[in-house]
Amino acid sequence: EIVMTQSPATLSVSPGGRATLSCRASQSVNDNLAWYQHKPGQAPRLLIYGASTRATGVPARFSGSGSGTEFTLAISSLQSEDFAVYYCQQYDKWPMYTFGLGTKLEIK
Amino acid sequence: QVQLVQSGAEVKKPGASVKVSCKASGYTFSDFYIHWVRLAPGQGLEWMAWINPNSGGTFFAEKFRGRVTMTRDTSINTAYMEMTGLTSDDTAVYFCVRDRRPNMVGDAFDLWGRGTMVIVSS
Prior knowledge:
The complex is a heterodimer of chains A (108) and B (122). Chain A is mainly β and 108 residues long. Chain A contains no helices and eleven strands. The relative contact order of chain B is 0.32.
C-alpha cells in the first residue's frame, strides 16, 4: 500500500499570506495526485487533480505542483474561506486509493 | 444541481449493521462510478470500495471485503453501502463520492456527498 505523508499537520498563516502544504508518497505515483479541501460539516471539495490541474471553479490562487513522490499545494493571498483541512490522495495505484492524514490550515 | 445526497446519521450497537444511501441528481447516474470513503475521528480519509452503477460490479479494499456490501437502484439513482458486524472502530463519517471521468475508475473524486455520521456505541 502506498503511504501518503502530509506535512505539516497544522499550518498557521495570516489572511493575505501564502501557505505551502506538502505531500510525499512512499513510492512514485507519477502525476496521479489530487488535493481536496474539507470544512467541518461540508462535503470535501476537489481542488487539484493530475498534480497540477485545477478543478472546475477553483480559484487561481490554488496551485499544485510535483510529480513522482513529492507534491506541493500552494495557496496565495489566503482568504477567510480557505482555512480548512487539506488532504492529498494518490490514485495511481488504483483500485487501492490512499489519502494523507491531512493538513489543518488555521488562521494565525 | 449536480449533487449526492446521503441519508441521515445513525447510532448503532456493536455487532449491528448499518445501511447508508446516496442519491445522485443532476447527472446520469449510471455514467459515473461511485466510491465510499470514510473519515474516523483523529484519522485520515480511508477509501473503502467502489460500485459501477451501470453494471453493479463492485470492488472492495481488503479490510472491508466480506463485511461491506454495495448495491444500487438505477430507477431512483441511488447507491447503498451496508456494513455488518459494526465495532467502535467503525464510528466515522461515511462519504459517497463520484469518480471524475465517466465510465472509468481510477481518477480523482470530483463530487462528494456531505457525509453520514455513523456512531457505534453500546
